[in-house]
Fold each of these.
Amino acid sequence: MKILVANIGSTSLKYRLYSMNEDGAELLCSGGYERVEDYASTIESCLQALQESGHLKNLEELSAVGFKTVLGKDLSGCVFADDAVIAALEGFKEVAPAHNIPYANGIKQFRSALPNTPLVALFETAFYQFAPEASRSYAIPEEWQAIGIRRYGFHGASHKFIAERSAQLLGREDVSKVAQSLYQKGPQPPEGADLRVISCHLGGSSSVTGIRNGVAIGTSMGFSPQSGLPQNNRVGDLDSAAIPYAMKKLGLSLEEVEKQLTKQSGLLGVSGVSNDVRDIGQAAKQGNKRAQLALDVLAHSIRHWIGAFYLELGGCDALVFTAGIGENDTALREAVCSNLDGLGFELDLEANASLRGKEGDIASKGSKTRVLVIPANEELVVARECYRLLQSGAKD
Ligand code: AMP
């Protein structure tokens, strides 16, 4: 069965084509388009290219297209991308504007291009459905809760891949059995297993998630993807009292506040240099204090969340770094892991310094907790969940 995973940005379309069967997935090809203005013609080009390259004999050979949708109003899980999914994305368009509208439009365009092919949405929030209620609730009035304000959590597909892959690397029970039922039924942790993973997805946007036996127990991102750690140019966590105060003192409108907190904050806001840690690191080396502060704020926030989940999990078997920054920024990994020997995290500094963009264990031999680098593979999780949804439909 061939499944296409489409990653939709506001001006980009990236894709991966997988061949799937009971034994697993094989990546057949991947590609993408940047600076997309006309989505309909870009989708046409993409489908044309897949056929011309021989990866698809014809469009009928495509069993499904999967989407890593972000946040749905009153909807999560892995579901067919029908009108209810589009309504759920549009219902929360203010909360995740950079993601929800491109996905709602992209799904509509794919639907016109492929009217007979099942489209499947895996929500980024799905991984957190079974986190304890206390970790998903804010201390707000009931009316606020009633309109859906709570901690949802994001990067679910990425953290789920980390949960499964780290269990494999540690030679532990297969938590994919838990994850397998996670999106459709309910979590069923393997008996007697206790695998505690803290997953740090550090990239253009970042989050830290605590995971027990394949099930998320909490995460740093909350109601929207602009919370938790400082993001590249989004604010991360901020005291709610700061907003009315800044509006009054700086004479800002709500629109201006939103713009500043989503486009001019995070690493860019603190450093004043760039939203990319590579440029910020360069500036810090040349003595730019704001740049150094941005890196310190990021490391401090990552450590804050690692500490929170270490306590919630009662320890940690694997601390994992993934995504662009996590896979490549050796200095940040060192800063995050410094002085944690007492808690059982001990980095092998040489192994850390030489591992970039590849999978590996960077903990010292004697470290109680393994410290792993695992390249992100969110698309694979989307493809697997699509496959499972189609298979469960076929069985019913
Ligand atoms: P992602 O969202 O996973 O694609 O990560 C993108 C981010 O990863 C970029 O904004 C960079 O800040 C960071 N990144 C990518 N390559 C490197 C590298 N070689 N060293 C440090 N950071 C990197």
Amino acid sequence: MEALIKVKRYNPEESEETYFQDYSINVAEDSTILDSLIKIREEQDGTLSLRCSCRASICGSCSMRVNGSAKLVCKTRVKEISPDGEFITIEPMGNFKVIKDLVTEMDSFWSKMKSVDPYVKTSFEPEAEHIASNESMTHLLGVMNCIMCGACVSECTAMEVDPTFTGPAALAKAYRFVADPRDEEANSRLGKLNENTGVWDCTRCLACVEVCPKDVAPMERIVKMRDLAIEEGYTNTSGYRHTESFNDSIKKHGRLDETRLALESTGLLNISGLIDLAKIGIKSLMRGKLPPILPHRPKDMKKVTSIAERLDNQGKEEE
Ligand code: FES
């Protein structure tokens, strides 16, 4: 069958400009996108750069954007993406610096991984046996499946805005050790992850969960670490105050009180934060975007508040 592939090209030795190049190649019915790219490189264009190794979705090196979303191209079949012979657009991963064509620089990815101390910290003697329950290890398997392909980072909307955010891959890795019963530093790990660029910077857009080829579900691990941090008493953060204010607002008014949310998230004793907020408030007012000082009352306020109460009670029972 014929595969039509459009590749985003970039070669800084020739030009800083990127451009798209179209290829048409005959491949077997069950070919993967990686098979097609390798065939293009071998038969049509030896200048095309890409990274791959295992060709079996194990090494994590072939992550690229396929039609706008990160995938392992060795796991993705041409037929699945282009059932009727449509063009398939291949780009390098997002949120990574591109070295050439589809090859990205992974330095920032690895330094973020290192920043979460990705190893068990224990005072046990190396020779001693430390038995962890099957249950706890089975739970951790979900995160240990991560092959560090970077797909989650590629699609992270928070990193797109703030590249200093630790990001879904490193935070999922952090969870692997926070939840490891053999690790003795969970509390201090949570304290660190609770700071700026940590767990509270995730916008919970779910993009990382959707693209992860190994179902690691990074966002769910991040949310779990927020809960654990709160349980450990780390509550002096705008993220925690935001959560509390949001919940309170829905329970009281049946809708979000945005003005109060902004004030309470910043912290009423945080003078410099409040001054910054006032500047944003003035700009919003001038553009007619300032939320109402008193929130509107929804028609079915009772219904909404009772749902919020019910969810709250359900959460408490589950604890
Ligand atoms: Fe190893 Fe795709 S080549 S994961």
